[in-house]
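Researcher: Here's the sequence for the chain we discussed earlier.
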Amino acid sequence: MSYHAGGEQAVTSRTAATMAVLLVAGQLLLPHDARPAPPCKPDLSSLVAPQPSPAVSLNDVYRHLAERREQQIERLRCYASRGRFPRNTDFPDRARPYFVDSAGTHCAVAHLMREDGHNDAVLAIAAADNHVLVDEVCGGPLRRWILTSGLTQAECARIQPTYGYGSVMGTNEPSTEALERDRLRIHFTKVEAELVRNSDASLETALREWIDDEMAREEPRSRKQRQARRQREPVKQRSKALDVEQLLAALGSDEAGVRLGAIHALRRSRLTTARRVEITPHLDRALRDPDPRVRFWAAIALHEGAPRGVTSYPHRLTRTAGALLAGLDSPDATLRRIAVIQLGLVAPECLADPRFPRAAGEKIVAAIERAIEDTDPVVAEEARQITATERWQSWAELAMRGPKVERRTPAPPPPSLPWPDASDPTVSTPAGSP
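Model: Thanks. This is the structure I predict for it:
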């Protein structure tokens, strides 16, 4: 059978038009959240996870996390303004989180993952545990996404809300659905403001979490542990950003968060004694950093990681003790706990060194005794245990009688006695006197 050319062209055009109509109808029949949502701004989802090149640095990782964080905040704002949230259809007696509900609507965390191109991981998480709590996740694709999202795990848990049964009052009335929608919008607005306000501190935490995950990829030392690990999971190469040379270069970064991350990575690195001696001058320079937190953690890294005798220079001990003393004045109770513990370890070395300044020793003794009255019970108990040891009194005495340069003052002249009056008849004049 033969077809006319014009008829064949007409059939082709009619077929194309029919296919287009069917495609549009199929899109309209899909649940709204199952349709691909247009991005709120140019999509940067190619940066799903930092896969560092051999020349990458800790500065690059920090900047990458900062860019990703801004992207997630913008996406969360668009998600909240759109106003389509999951509904609880299974638990009438309590509110529960939903990763993806029965209508295919994604929660905020799942939406952010999907926007990054991890839709398969989202569906796998929903199939495995659709009511997963983000703050309890310790592995898997959700944890890996958090590490590269620019957000901390605590912030992702804060983003994840719970949903009441059906709607706010357990009914399906439009008014209560509007109340639920407004409640969730208010929640996301508050979370967005927190994310913006806490960006600097959260980026430092996100960088530390990324470093910890990368450090966990380091090969175990024993052969049995290496074989067992390779059987459990494929071996992944650790980022070149955590090489010692890169970390030492990061100590000179303009960002305090990068310098803190470098010190954190150096503390976690398995270094030989010779290598620790080499990095000691770099940590010594970090004791003069303009940021007090960098000085604090550099003092801890210097004291806990340096070989015996390396920290026993008077100026280095003085700076180490000074940075730890500043930590005792921090508003963060965790830093005060670490500071009082480290001061308990540093105090014997400082106070027993005859070259250590007496004024600095008195400050250490006074600070630890003052920490007994700290508002945090853990800090107070640690200080109490330090001062209760038998050697504490000897340390305190050493601090009080240590070398001290005092200014010499001339001795006052003896009091002058009045010369006896010769006209006084009661005074006898010695023989031979004028």
